[in-house]
Write a structure and sequence with these properties.
By secondary structure, the chain is α+β, with helices and mostly antiparallel strands. The two termini are about 10 Å apart. The longest helix has 14 residues, at about 20-30. The chain has a single domain, classed as 2-Layer Sandwich (Alpha-Beta Plaits). It has helices at about 20-30, 65-70, and strands at about 5-10, 35-45, 50-60, 75-85. The chain is about 25% helix and about 50% strand. Strands 2-3-1-4 form a four-stranded antiparallel sheet, with helices on one face.
């Protein structure tokens, strides 16, 4: 079985949200769902609002939907969007 590389965008509800708390909770969810090596980038959107882009590896046989749904339930996250998903080669 292979590895899937995933990029999901988490949109916080306001610019005043503590993004470090979102990252900490997202790491727990990803690791619980058998994801590995979570990495985060903050992407400026507008008027001080920053999205959190999450990159991680997931074994191909593991479902992504439960992770995405759990990330959408993180406190102060209003939406999630899968931006990229591809099979790793090598």
């Amino acid at each position: 079985m292979g590895i899937v590389l995933v990029k999901i965008r988490l949109m916080p509800e306001s610019p005043s949200v503590n993004l470090e708390e979102i990252k900490k909770e997202a790491t727990k969810i990803i690791e619980k769902g058998k994801g590995k090596s979570p990495r985060f980038e903050e992407d400026p959107i507008a008027f001080g609002l920053k999205a959190v882009d999450v990159y991680f590896q997931l074994p191909e046989q593991e479902p992504l939907e439960p992770i995405e749904e759990a990330l959408g339930r993180v406190k102060h996250v209003t939406s999630t969007q899968i931006l990229d998903m591809r099979r790793a080669i090598g």
